[in-house]
Amino acid sequence: EVQLVESGGGLVQAGGSLRLSCAASGFTFIDYAIGWFRQAPGKEREGVSCISSSDGSTYYADSVKGRFTISRANAKNTVYLQMNSLKPEDTAVYYCAADSSIDYCGPGGPVGAGVRNWGQGTQVTVSS
């Protein structure tokens, strides 16, 4: 059974930092790209960042470029999202998702359409 478990969310002041973790199990981790998405109340889901399975290439949405860093520890089946210089508009539920499709992870970040493997989400709240 595929499982993705996010952790590390919380409440932080604007300008602060958080590190999210996505722990994976139930599939061959190194064969999958992992992406982070977020969804704020009343807004559409947004692909934030992803890291490829093949060479560890990383991609970011313009809204987080230069502030967020994604990384993966294959020995731990875990992907991290380091979020710095947080803004109130970063407030959302953050989800990680895994997919092996060639179209899943590329410039601009991950594409959520058709992805079946999702975590339950972790809340990030940035106060002004």
Task: Please explain how this structure is put together.
This protein is mostly beta strands. Helix content is 0%, strand content 51%. It contains no helices and 13 strands. The chain has strands spanning 3-7, 10-13, 18-25, 33-39, 46-51, 58-60, 68-73, 78-83, 92-99, 105-106, 109-110, 117-118, 122-127. The strands form three sheets. Strands 2, 4, 5, 6, 9, 12 and 13 form a seven-stranded mixed beta sheet that branches. Strands 1-3-8-7 form a four-stranded antiparallel beta sheet, with no helix packed on it. It has a two-stranded antiparallel sheet with strand order 10-11. The relative contact order is 0.31. The mean pLDDT is 96.
Provide a quick synopsis of the model.
The chain contains no helices and 13 strands. With 128 residues, the protein is mostly beta strands.
Short key terms for the protein model shown above:
7-stranded mixed β-sheet; mainly beta; single chain; 4-stranded antiparallel β-sheet; 128 residues
For the termini, the CA-CA separation is 40 Å
Low-confidence stretches: none
Helical segment tally? 0
Structural class: mainly beta
Q: What is the radius of gyration?
A: 13 Å
Reported for the largest beta sheet, the result is: 7 strands, mixed
Shape: globular
The H/E string reads EEEEEEEEEEEEE
In helices, the fraction of residues equals under 10%
Question: Quick one: how many beta strands?
Answer: 13
Percent strand equals over 45%
> Mean pLDDT across all residues, rounded?
96
